[in-house]
Amino acid sequence: MRIAYLDCASGISGDMTLGALVDAGVDLAAIQSGVDSLGLPSCQLVAAEVKKRGFRATQVTVQHEPEQAHRHLHHITAMIDGSALTPRQQELATAIFTRLGEAEARAHGTTIEKVHFHEVGAVDSIADIVGAAIGWDLLGVEKIYCSAVPTGTGFIQIAHGRCSIPAPATADLLRGVPLVDFPVDGELTTPTGAAIIATLTERFGPMPAMTVESIGYGAGQKDFEHPNLLRLMVGESADTPSTAADTIVLLETNLDDCPGEAIAHCCERLWQAGALDVALTPIQMKKGRPGVLVTVQAQPADADKLAAIVLAETTALGLRKQTVERLVLARRKATVATPWGETTGVVATLPDGSERFTPEYDDCKALAERAGEPLGKVYVAAAAAFGRVE
């Protein structure tokens, strides 16, 4: 499977994305042709090789005539619908702008129909987003992965005045995305860049196992004390067909002064709120006191919600939080017949291609209780039945 990895060591913006795509081999003329079909005022994409702190990269600049227009989302989607872009390119561009519109609407307390785009409705931002959509389509990757993202620090002047970095829409777009503590004075990740990765990225975290075929470097417009570059790595996934990698958040806290009933209730609430896994481990804490280690696995978007449950329902004064990568076996549901009735289970495909069937506990328990048989006997029969079915 052909995949791409975005290494956002210096954040990400629309023009950095375009530069990385062109540097990785996407035809700039093809991107220009698609942008021309939008009907924007004279708009030219210019690529140049530059150096950032000694490292070469491609910098793409959008040159256009000055304009005062500020657009709503429907103006931009109408341009996209009336363009010569392929259906896939139109879909990507519309999805990115819609995601951006939703973030702007939440930031300003309005609806997506009433959102008034300012900076991101200008010619250069439209060209950046539509050009990126064209570029990703031409790159021909099936999945896009991305590193953790730095935002930069300080303040930026926007149409609504002076605001802190990340800008409100950028912060909204980066919810659930692992962020990097990189105290650079300036904006590293723009709303346009955040919208692109929030819409297109399969998962965030370390680089996946892959065989790299090409590497593109996109340069940002600003100069810092570090190389202001976005690195794009393109190649073939090295994951076996039966495994897939994803990124989750691990939450942990140690408790030695919390009633067992409260911990049990907390675990129930965590499961109901969408935790991937909840585990309790007995530990020994200071002064020889027995304690409990509470470990919660969460999807990145659910981490803050689940952390709030732990803090509300237990005596925890804080939690440890880390982003980790896990390998997950491909799996499917299966139903088998036993002498006492049907039971479901999960079939996992192992790296060697063989399959392992695990009967569903609740189903087996119900059959065992109804038939007056030992639970273990029902488990064995269910496993044997899967072998006969297959």
TrEMBL record:
Keywords: Lyase, Nickel. The keyword Transit peptide does not apply. Gene3D superfamilies: Transcriptional regulatory protein pf0864 domain like (3.30.70.1380). The keyword Lyase applies. Pfam families: Ni_insertion. GO terms for molecular function: lyase activity; nickel cation binding. NCBIfam families: nickel pincer cofactor biosynthesis protein LarC. Belongs to the LarC family. This is Putative nickel insertion protein.
